[in-house]
Amino acid sequence: MRPLLPAALALLAACQACAASRISLFDGRSFKGWDGDTNQTFHIRDGMIVGGTFSRMQPRNEFLATTARYTNFVLRAKFKLTGTEGFVNSGIQFRSERVPNDSEMNGYQADIGAGWFGTLYDESRRNKPMAKPSEAAVKSAVKIGDWNDYELHCVGPHIVLKINGVLMVDYTEADASIPQTGRFGLQVHGGGRTEVFFKDLYLYPLP
After folding, report:
1. In DSSP terms, which residues pair with 90 in a beta bridge?
2. Three-state DSSP class for 78?
3. Nearest 5 degrees, angle CA 95-CA 64-CA 50?
4. In order of start, what are the domains of the chain with their CATH numbers?
């Protein structure tokens, strides 16, 4: 067996340090460390965060957001999106902030929903996709109506999104004015009878 080169050893050490510093963002029992509409929109069921309900049309976008802010990281989360009517869509906000006096958040979103899976969207800021995956990548990766793994890598201006281990987008932010730190948020999009489930939300901070 060949000895590992110094660069490989350094990468291995960084990965081991990353794994050792894993942070669970959700304790499965309470919304400690989060804020948002926990009366009508978000609740906890069987150790999962559930957003939305089939019993009513979601009136507007709502976000359950972390109270803490993060800069460089790997985020891993499991999601399942279901819906019966209207615009069935969700997403994971990152490096984002709440819009004052509004239910919205502005910042990057790892999108979830038909036609949007794996898209990097700039929510309530530039209001457009910054990068989109190929249809082939989405078709090969996404399990519709079932559990999927989202993985977000952010280091400086470099952002990588993966679903079930398949690369969705690899994007480098060219605008130096865009913040590289902020909150996470779980979205329920307005205009649909939707239930979106999240569990196993693990953060791996990076230097």
Report:
1. 112, 188
2. strand
3. 130
4. 6-205 (2.60.120.560)
